[in-house]
Amino acid sequence: MKIVRVVSELDFGGVEQVIANSVPNLFKSSDVELSILVLGKGGRISNYLIENGIPVNIWNRRVRIPNFSLLFQLQNFLRNYNPDVVHCQGSEANFHGILAAKFGGVPRIIGEEIGIPNHHSFWKWIFRIVYKQAHQVIAISEAVKREIVGLGEVSEEKVKVIYNPVDSEGRENRDQGNQKREFEGEEKGYTFNFVTTCRLVPIKNLERLIQAFGGLVKANPDRELRLRIVGEGPERENIDKEIRDKGLVSRVEILGFQSNVWAFLEESDVFVLPSLREGSSVSLAEAMTVGLPSIVTQVGGASEVLGDSNSGIFIDPLDIDSIQGAMQQMIDFSKEEREAMGARAKKEAQRFSVDNYIKELMKIYHSPIS
Fold it and tell me: What is the pLDDT of residues 285-336, one digit of tens each?
């Protein structure tokens, strides 16, 4: 079976992490010939895949919708390559990839909605046309499925929910050269560690998190508290300024992109996910995998990742007091209570294994076309 995975970029982020977690295992399958097509820029994850012998084509094209020359180029590529399946992930990849696959006569076309869309009437109409050309649409959570069906972009029977995978087996192997950096305030003996891992973009709501953490520090002058932010992105300068303005330089650190986040998670006490919109969350599933209790936005599909584990506290991401209150609850819990929450989280996270993900994906790739 020849499969082409189409993505917009392959540097770092949620889609990129899903590709990094799953594609190497899929590539090992004896009946799969797999190729990755990056319409825009490559980067960290594309380099990682190439180093592991996985074919990655990086086109460096403008992916903003619509790019008709890109659409025709992609159509010609697919006609010549003649894949059995085209699987597109993300809005730009879905638009160009699904239409090109349709025009190119690809037998099975899969789209994937990777987050909660924020489409106005024009874009609802556009994606209604696009998704009509796909044989199946993957949603990364029930919340995402409800949204795209509710918007009228796709019929309910065409949508299949598959949660993003976590490569727990690879946590010891990924980037052995990646070394932890010492926290600026380490010598001061901070002992309670909050951590969040994400792209530094406005939707991740990090400014409110920092404000809430600042309030937490003031309310607990005798507690040894710190916050680590693992990630990179366009909002870094603004977040750095927020940290300085709140006088939290010795308490909060941005660690930048880390290809191996496991070490930072393992030395933390609580994971925080304060996003304003979250379709699902690989980062949350990773934190659960190492046994961390969590503070989680009540918006979108993150609650589905927690499942019935009772391993986290839900917050209103727009309410700084809600975020601070949840953080206060966590530090007030006994160590035993947090460890019990973490144990439940770890058990729940078994749902997100790479093997389970690939099994569900292959069912879609092989299912008969109606």
Answer: 999 999 999 999 999 999 999 999 999 999 999 999 999 999 999 999 999 9
Q: Where are the alpha helices (DSSP H) in the chain?
A: 14-27, 44-51, 68-81, 91-103, 121-132, 142-150, 206-219, 236-245, 262-266, 282-289, 302-306, 320-332, 335-348, 354-366
Whether the CA torsion 305, 39, 48, 43 is positive or negative: it is negative
- Please give the Cα distance from 217 to 33 (Å, whole number): 53
* Residue 160 CA: distances (Å) to CA of 87, 138, 163, 284, 352: 13, 5, 10, 21, 16
Burial class for 156, CB neighbours closer than 10 Å (0-12, 13-18, 19+): exposed
Environment class of 30 (CB within 10 Å of its CB; exposed 0-12, middle 13-18, buried 19+): exposed
Query: Peptide bond preceding 202: is omega within 30 degrees of 0, i.e. cis?
Result: no
Axis crossing angle, helix 91-103 with helix 68-81, rounded to the nearest 10: 50
Query: pTM for the complete prediction?
Result: 0.89
pLDDT tens, residue by residue, 217-253: 999 999 999 999 999 999 999 999 999 999 999 999 9
Q: Which fold has domain 186-351?
A: Rossmann fold (3.40.50)
- Going by pLDDT thresholds of 50, 70 and 90, the confidence category of residue 9 is very high
Q: How buried is residue 77: exposed, middle or buried, by Cβ count under 10 Å (0-12/13-18/19+)?
A: middle
Q: Predicted confidence band at 57 (pLDDT cuts at 50, 70, 90)?
A: very high
Q: What angle is formed at CA 289 by the lines to CA 285 and CA 294, rounded to 5 degrees? A: 60
- CATH 3.40.50.2000 in the chain is located at 2-165+353-366, 186-351
Q: What is the DSSP letter of 353?
A: B
Give yes or no for a contact between 135 and 365, defined as CB atoms under 8 angstroms apart: no
Strands 270-273 and 2-7, sheet pairing: unpaired
Structural class in CATH, domain 2-165+353-366 = alpha beta
Q: Which of 130, 104, 108 is nearest to 117 (CA)?
A: 130
